[in-house]
Specification:
Layout lengths: L1 H8 L9 H33 L2 H27 L14 H29 L8 H28 L2 H26 L7 H29 L5 H13 L6 E8 L5 E10 L4 H19 L1 E10 L4 H17 L4 E9 L4 E9 L7 H13 L5 E9 L3
Helix pairs in contact: 2-3, 2-5, 3-4, 3-6, 3-7, 4-7, 5-6, 6-7, 8-9, 10-11
């Protein structure tokens, strides 16, 4: 069904990096959501009113909030598809994240309202009228929401959309919420306990948890997250394929919306190689990274010595020392300046987030271990954090 809808309503649906194609995916997701949620709201509101069930009505309003979210999503995708301009040179892709945030806020407002109504229902319970029609409607609702969740998950994975994946999670949460409502309705046959109100609270709490989860994920995207391990590994493979590359470090990747990644990285190269040949290879590598991963990458070349035996011995020595201080520490840009009285070791140390040692403590530990060596070494260390 999903493949049929995509092929029928989205032209060039395989070109998911195209903003217009992404907009078409968003519009398809939104219209499907609007139609399904409006029908579910009408059915549940009518049945909940007839059955005097707050949990069914609550579940119906949850569908109505989903419908409002679909409208916001539609607007968000249209904004995100706008091309870059003078004021927004990186495009409008982050509008998808803002859209997710608005959706989450709508969900949480509805959750709070339904929670207060359900608590009141527990304090002042009313008799719930059981009916087979209500049971059938709720079962159909579960099946429809389950399909919607899988539908949006497939679309979201296809275009790497946080909005669609958030919508998918919301739909799957609705499946659980409606199941809780169904339990309340069936329980009304066997007990006069305020199960309906309790299940209404359960539904509203699920709505709030869903909204909070979406807020957290969206805020993380807006604040800036590290590159995913999959992206880093794929990037390393491409860098290793470059014949001049001796390793990479200082990788930074910024996301300006799904499919719009901009980054930079330092690559070590042999300082004795022809600079023009290296530059040509690096240009080709940047093109390969964009073609394969969709990242607009700027590569900085760090020339290193490869035939200095003393430098290699000192580099190996620092590697051993760092591992003794903290196995999570890494270093790069290693240089050595030898003099008649002492040797300067110049390098950068990458300190992982969460390291219990301060920069000063790390340097002190390294220097203490170097004092025990026969030769006299001084260190000039630049400390930095990892961005991946």
């Amino acid at each position: 069904m999903t493949k049929l809808l995509v092929s029928k309503f989205i032209k060039d649906y395989d070109n998911v990096k195209n903003p217009k194609v992404r907009e078409a995916y968003g519009l398809l997701s939104s219209w499907v959501g609007i139609v399904c949620n409006v029908l579910l709201f009408i059915a549940k509101f009518a049945i909940g009113t007839l059955a005097n069930s707050i949990s069914i009505i609550s579940d119906g309003f949850n569908n109505l909030s989903d419908c409002a979210s679909c409208v916001v999503t539609m607007f968000g995708y249209k904004m995100a598809a706008k091309p870059a301009d003078k004021d927004h040179p990186f495009g409008h892709g982050r509008m998808e994240y803002l859209t997710s945030l608005v959706i989450a806020m709508v969900i949480m407002v509805v959750g709070v309202e339904l929670f207060t109504g359900s608590v009141d229902k527990i304090i002042h319970p009313d008799k719930v009228s059981f009916s087979i029609i209500a049971v059938v409607a709720l079962v159909l609702s579960i099946l429809i929401k389950l399909w919607m969740g899988l539908f949006n998950k497939k679309l979201g994975n296809a275009v790497e959309s946080s909005v669609m994946l958030a919508t998918s999670k919301d739909s799957l949460n609705d499946v659980l919420a409606t199941a809780a409502t169904l339990v309340a309705l069936v329980s009304s046959v066997f007990t006069d306990a305020p199960i309906d109100g309790v299940m209404g609270v359960v539904v509203s709490v699920m709505i709030l948890i869903s909204g909070f989860g979406i807020v957290k994920e969206t805020v993380d995207e807006l604040l800036g997250q590290p590159a995913s391990p999959e992206i880093v590994e794929a990037l390393k493979e491409l860098v290793d394929e470059c014949s001049y590359s001796l390793g990479m470090h200082d990788l930074i990747i910024h996301s300006y919306g799904p499919g719009n990644l901009i980054g930079s990285v330092h690559i070590e190269v042999d300082g004795k190689e022809n600079i023009m040949d290296i530059h040509d290879a690096i240009d080709e590598l940047e093109r390969n990274i964009y073609d394969e991963l969709g990242i607009r990458m700027t590569i900085h070349m760090d020339p290193v010595e490869t035939d200095n035996e003393n430098l290699k011995l000192c580099k190996d020595m620092i590697e051993v020392i760092l591992n003794e201080v903290d196995s999570e520490l890494h270093f790069h840009d290693f240089r050595m300046v030898a003099g008649p009285s002492h040797t300067n070791l110049i390098f950068d140390v990458v300190v992982p987030h969460g390291c219990k040692l301060s920069d000063g403590e790390i340097k002190e530990a390294i220097d203490e271990k170097l004092i025990m060596r026969e030769k006299k070494y001084y260190t000039v260390i630049t400390f930095e954090k990892s961005y991946y």
